[in-house]
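## retry 2 of 3
previous attempt timed out at serialization; input unchanged, resubmitting
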Amino acid sequence: MTEKLSLTELQLIIKDSLYLALPDMYWVTAEITEIKENSAGHCYLELVEKNSDEKNVRARVKAIIWSNRYRFLKSFFENITGESLNEGLKILVKVKVEYHEIYGLSLIITDIDPSYTIGEMAMKRQLIIKRLEEEGVFTMNKEVDFPVAPQRIAVISSKNAAGYSDFINHLTGNNSGYVFYTFLIETVMQGIETEQSIMKALDKIALNISLFDVVVIIRGGGSQSDLSWFDNYNIAYYVTQYPLPVITGIGHEKDTSVTDMVAFQSLKTPTAVADYLIDRMTEAENNIMELSTGITNISQNIIEKNRNLIDTFRMKLIPVARLMISDIKEDISGKIIEIINIGKESVVRAGLSPANQKSRLTSAVRSYSSIKESELKRNRYDLISLSSNTLKINNINIAGLQNTLEMLRPEKVLGRGYTITSYKGKILKSCDEIKTDEIINTQFQDGSISSKVV
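## retry succeeded, writing output
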């Protein structure tokens, strides 16, 4: 072909050829990767089709919704789906192919089918849930041990969010006077930066995990499209793997995101999260009071039991002492009679005068009586001393038991450096009771940690 064409003439040929080849309207599925609205009200989009890996782009084209049509389609789409037209959405639109000699190829959008986008969103959500369940991680954060007294709270939120202010005011103004320590990690809570921002915040908390008891993700209310940023596999997976309980209060009364589903506890609003933490503190206080009452009752029972035992021993010792004294008296009387008889026989044999015999006999009797009286006093003293020592020993034993009880109080034991290791609420007494990869909880005096068995 020797005919020469200007660039404009070639462009017009392309334009006419496309018009003749594609004169109709076409329903096209695509994903929005860029959307802008100019001052005149026109909406400019970039549409793509990706490979099955959702990474590589197979096709890309520019699209336009003229202002007079955009106002209607935008309102129509948002009312049906609860979503705004934004990046990442998959849409089904009715288009006409247009070619301009300066701006090139573009698609003019004249209609949109909201039901397609709703289906895509639901399918994406279900695929995320199914993937987490197949990986066996969906309920992992729900199985993390919750601290007895959740006072140290890492908060993931926007500093300017109304929900954050409501949470702090409700938490610090609780009627029970509980003290909570909060640390805010300011985070983007909507838009395309949400995923990376939340995961970075979780990583930051993990670097200082010993300083916190729980993690709270909160935001104020918003549109349905704001909530969709939490239907995200990477955020949800991060939450399932987190070693601390994660509590969400994203601020939607009707809808629950995938992040809510995998969290340890999902609540509708930030103030509901604050109420949950306050209730757990109340529960911990009640448990401590019950333990204190139980220890007091056990101590009183042991003291009363030993007091009764002492009284029993005392009652048994009194008749024994009386019997011993009676036996000694009888023995002395028998000896006196024996001495008298011996004395009489001796007087007769020796032919001594009655007066001398009586004097010697009286002296012997007095001497013997004195000895026996001394023995009686000594035995009586020994008996009193034995009774007193027995009572002192029992009092010492009771004091020792009381000291032992005090030392065995859970707070004292933990304070001496001991710990309590448990698995799913059951205290472990042997390493044979736990298996590899299971999560165990170790309770210290001032908190607890969770560990994975390797």
